[in-house]
Amino acid sequence: MNALAAYTLRLGDDALILSQRLGEWTGSAPELEEDIALTNIALDLLGQARMLLTYAGEVDGNGRTEDDLAYLRDEREFTNCQLVELPNDDFAATIARQLMFSAYQYELYAALQHSADETLAGIAGKAVKEVAYHRDHARQWVLRLGDGTDESHTRMQQGLERMWPYAHELLEDDGVIQELKGVAIDPGELRPSYDFVLGVLAEATLSRPEIDWHPSGGRQGMHTEHMGRLLAEMQHIHRSHAGASW
Amino acid sequence: MTATDVSALYRMVADIPDPEIPVLTIEDLGVLRDVRIDDQGRVEVTITPTYSGCPAMDVITADITQRLAENGLAAVVRTVLSPAWTTDWMSEDGRSKLAAYGIAPPGHRTDSVVGVQISVRCPQCGSPDTRQVSRFGSTACQAHWVCRSCAEPFAEFKTH
Question: What is the pLDDT along chain A (246 residues), one digit of tens a residue?
Fold first, then answer.
């Protein structure tokens, strides 16, 4: 697979897998408005994933559609970061992930809308406005829970500790990015996302987790033990009824 | 094909309603970008999504294809992303229709609109004394509000 296809695919996989995870909150969020908010965010991410996977299939040149890529690849062929595949866990953990991921995705799309690749620029220009909303939604919850009651503060801090190590992978550099100068975004440009997160934590009276270990490997197709189950749920209908359509 | 014919084709599809907010047409919404005849004589209609994941796009595509087919015309519906749709593409007529329908129309954008909450006027009683209940509503493009004056809940078409 060429570098442009590989890069587009990983962005699409991040959006697709997080969309699938957030969709699990349907009918079980702490309140109705939040149920709707998380699934609206999931829908935005799914729309981004569809455009990115469609484009990845085009530039890859093997005639694969968005559905082929979403439903017919196996675990080792997915190149999403591990953060997005982690179970939702406590609501506060989901919100911690939303803060870190949307902060990252906001800077990513804000930069990518000036990419030399017109299609990626177009998708990013569309998506950055949606992600600004996701980021603000997460920020408001982190402030409310972190600077809330003892219980909400404790759980927000725990959720943060749970997700924190996995955010490191978002800012990793590799050969695919290096090969796409002017097209892909250098992780160094995404540093403001980290500063944004730290700013929110301070405002929310939360502590930056003191955790040094950080897992990696999602971009090479290595995933946590949770990924297989997620894919089984996401893919089984398509695979059980091959070729079926509405 | 003359310019007059193309404008007749434009009018043929312009009043197709949005499937989620049927009081608006795709022209009001600013989703309809262009209508032309391609080199194979088919009607090429260009639309743009409001939000990346908007499920209405598939329905709008099908509705355009059907509307033209009913008139004996073959259609090709293209989706473009750039320039990205904003609520500034919505017509003034569309804004008035939304308000009459009970949905607060979007404001005009500034470049840093997210995070700044401006008061939204209640579409029922006109009071500016309103409160946002949820930033997300029944569709991707709406937020949920309640009016403190008349106590009625209402939707706002988000400035985007």
Answer: 999 999 999 999 999 999 999 999 999 999 988 999 999 999 999 999 999 999 999 999 999 999 999 999 999 999 999 999 999 999 999 999 999 999 999 999 999 999 999 999 999 999 999 999 999 999 999 999 999 999 999 999 999 999 999 999 999 999 999 999 999 999 999 999 999 999 999 999 999 999 989 999 999 999 999 999 999 999 999 999 988 876
| Cα→Cα distances A188→A50, A167, A172, Å | 27, 15, 9
Question: Could you tell me where the beta strands, DSSP code E, fall in B3-159?
Answer: 32-37, 43-47, 75-79, 103-104, 130-134, 142-147, 153-157
Q: Do B81 and A46 touch (CB under 8 A)?
A: no
User: What is the pTM for the complete model shown?
Assistant: 0.92
Question: What is the amino acid identity at position B71?
Answer: N
Q: Is A116 left (phi over 0), alpha (psi -120 to 50) or beta?
A: alpha
| CA atoms of B137 and B115, how far apart (whole Å) | 17
Spell out the alpha helix ranges (H) of chain B. 3-14, 26-29, 56-70, 92-101
To which residue do tokens 């971009």 refer? Answer: A219
Find chain A residues with C-beta within 8 A of B84's C-beta: 122, 125-126, 129
Residue A165 region, left (φ>0) first, then alpha (ψ -120 to 50), else beta?
A: alpha
Strand, helix or coil at B124? Answer: coil
Helix, coil or strand: residue A211: coil
Contact B53/A45 with Cβ under 8 angstroms?
yes
DSSP, collapsed to helix, strand or coil, labels residue B75 as strand
Task: Tell me which residues of chain A have a C-beta less than 8 Å from any C-beta of chain B.
Answer: 33-34, 36-37, 40-41, 43-48, 50-51, 118, 121-123, 125-127, 129-130, 132-133, 136-137
